[in-house]
Design goal:
By secondary structure, the protein is an alpha+beta fold. It has three helices and six strands, in the order H-E-E-E-H-H-E-E-E. The strands form two sheets. A three-stranded mixed beta sheet has the order 1-3-2. A three-stranded antiparallel beta sheet has the order 5-4-6, with no helix packed on it. Helix 1 packs across helix 2 and helix 2 packs across helix 3. The chain is elongated.
Length: 151
């Protein structure tokens, strides 16, 4: 599906499900991984994850579009357009949009490279990133920490 086809599809969904026109840009974004789509309040544009289209298909993407259109239409009407707002939740339920999207790929669990060890109580904290031990203390006894590299 091209961006032009997506634009036309979003306009159709907006008219059919909401009864209001969509007058801004809808495009695919290949870099979206953890989210199905985004609505930009400043420009009123919508981005949809290309990965969602490839992995989960038309039905899932339609729910994501409805979700983003809820943000869009409520924001233009100056009503509650955030996830926590009752207006948003009610409209999303009414049009059949998805509250959350299906994950496209499993999250990669990284092995810890560093180990922080408390010099007082010997409690250990595995970490994937290097930490400045001068800024932190042990959460249990407030003792000094020592940084050790695992691999």
């Amino acid at each position: 599906m091209t961006n032009e086809q997506l634009q036309q599809w979003v306009c159709e969904i907006s008219e059919q499900s909401f009864g209001w026109p969509f007058r801004h840009q809808a495009t695919f974004n290949t870099r979206l991984r953890s989210t199905g789509g985004r609505y930009f309040p400043r420009t009123h544009n919508i981005e949809i994850s290309r990965k969602q289209w490839e992995m989960n298909g038309r039905d899932e993407v339609e729910k994501i579009i409805k979700h983003e259109l809820c943000h869009y239409h409520l924001h233009l009407q100056k009503r509650g357009h955030n996830h926590r707002d009752a207006d948003f939740k009610q409209l999303l339920k009414k049009v059949g949009g998805a509250r959350f999207c299906t994950p496209v790929a499993p999250r990669v669990k990284r092995e810890p490279k560093y180990l922080l060890k408390c010099l007082s109580c010997a409690h250990q904290y595995p970490r994937t990133r290097k930490v400045d031990v001068r800024k932190y203390v042990c959460g249990i006894c407030r003792g000094r920490l020592q940084l050790m590299q695992i691999k």
